[in-house]
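Protocol step 4 of 5: obtain the predicted structure for the target chain.
Materials: sequence only (see below). No template structures provided, no constraints applied. The aim of this step is simply to have a reference model before the mutagenesis design in step 5. Sequence pasted as it appears in the construct record:
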Amino acid sequence: MARYTGPMTRKSRRLGVDLVGGDSSFERRPYPPGQHGRARIKESEYRSQLQEKQKARFSYGVLEKQFANYYHEAKRRDGKTGDNLLQLLESRLDNVVYRAGFARTRRHARQLVVHGHFLVNGKKVNIPSYQVSAHDVIDVREKSWGMTPFIVARETHGERVVPAWLEAFPNRMRVLVHQLPTRAQIDIPVQEQLIVEYYSKL
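Step 4 output (structure tokens):
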């Protein structure tokens, strides 16, 4: 299963946004990496569009081809393409696990999903890109409850705000998906319209 495995702090500094969440290295040096990191960068419309696409892509841990597929699916659906795109990305199983507070980062959530620790509506799912639907019930397998990540999740529950479209029950290791998220409920510093403009020119 392909994924980006390189240094995320470097990507965060290049794109000017903390892609990991709580990255102290990025906070110390919030300027582009490399010898000429503090040099003035020539802005352009294309650069802004590409940068927004890369922000979204690396935030959710999606490769280029898969991200393009999400865009084409979003365009096919009714409504605003940009809103649909973010909704598709936000509805990934690994993101839901992260948003519910059961993993420290999306990378960590992806690993937990791949290792088969989650059930969706009673069935084991180990595909991070699995699209959850409204009224889905996501459970941690009982055999996995005693593992360190889930013990930590129970002890630290409440430190991260769970979005309104989800409801987490850490004592039962369960997440309820009340609805698919609206744009207003998606907390990610991305201008999705620039992403739409980027793909419309290809």
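Step 4 remarks: The two ends are 27 Å apart (CA to CA). The chain has a mean pLDDT of 88.
Proceed to step 5.
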